[in-house]
Amino acid sequence: MKILSTILYVSLLCILFVFMVRYGRTGPPEGMALVPAADGTDPFYMDIYEVTNADYQQFIDANPQWQKDKALTSVVGDDYLSLWNGNIYPKRQANHPVVKVSWFAAKAYAEWVGKELPTQTQWEKASRGGLTGKIYPWGDARPNNRANYDRYTDITDFKHPPT
Q1: 76-96: pLDDT as tens digits
Q2: What SS3 string covers 57-114?
């Protein structure tokens, strides 16, 4: 009788565990989207928004070795945070995407927030939004007003691009 009750108890625990694993998920983590499996990739999560200047400021405040004046040029490059004034991002650009960071700095930031950078295959899959065989995420038509494309003016140039 004791063996039968133990088997029943273990069976109930297994059923409960399977139910929790299968139905206990509430969706992707906040601020992330699930990119489904396809084209030889497993499903993965990707942030919905870019890392902002304000986000990156918190990172370099917590990790001084990545501050502009302390980071190794051989790791971050000559152009690292070149639009910033020292370790302060440009005025009124707190919510703009951070630019002028190296792959190594981006990887360090991702690890700091408990994430990882996407692989090239993951990035291409996510950026296409499900389309395959097209030049752009929306199809083959030129970007026109659909993207920040060819928007250089008298006050912006390749050295000081807009975000």
Answers
A1: 999 999 999 999 999 999 999
A2: HHHHHHCHHHCCCCCCHHHHCCCCCCCCECCECCCCCCCCECCCCCHHHHHHHHHHCC
